[in-house]
Write a structure and sequence with these properties.
This protein has eight helices and no strands. It is elongated. It is mostly helical.
Length: about 150
């Protein structure tokens, strides 16, 4: 069951990433990415796995977590699956934010979204740097405040 949830969750996020990366300006992509439903579903899977991963034996490890505790906890398939779903949810959420920021500002996001898919924080860093470079060196390419509020 745990392995199946893990596999389904991995496949579940891929269409959202594909839409944001390959078809960012398609109206279907915008409509799909407006929804919080993917996050609700993934968070539900995470909640299920998280609750089922806590045992009387490992509950104390969560109270004052140390690196050795994390390593020991992640040796358990249930904990590892919950942790991985956590990454999927949060990376997709950050990717969605990057996507919408790109839609609002016109800043190119394909590279940042691709990085976010494989290494979430690096995608976020990439977008922050890309946005900063765009504003610093190409301010005329940025939409005006009046254009974005109209």
């Amino acid at each position: 069951m745990i392995s199946q949830l893990f596999n389904v969750a991995n496949l579940f996020v891929l269409p959202f990433w594909a839409l944001m990366i390959l078809l960012p300006n398609w109206k279907v992509t915008r409509r799909v990415m407006e929804s919080y439903l993917p996050f609700v579903l993934l968070a539900g899977v995470y909640l299920y796995l998280f609750i089922n991963s806590i045992t009387p034996e490992n509950a104390q490890d969560y109270s004052n977590i140390q690196l050795a505790d994390v390593a020991r906890l992640f040796a358990d398939e249930k904990v590892a699956a919950a942790g991985w779903i956590h990454f999927l949810v949060m990376d997709l959420f950050v990717g969605r934010w990057i996507y919408w920021e790109g839609q609002k500002t016109g800043v190119w996001t394909v590279h940042s979204l691709s990085l976010c898919l494989f290494a979430g924080p690096l995608g976020l860093l990439s977008h922050i740097l890309t946005n900063w470079i765009s504003q610093a060196f190409f301010p005329k390419l940025q939409p005006s405040k009046e254009a974005t509020t109209a």
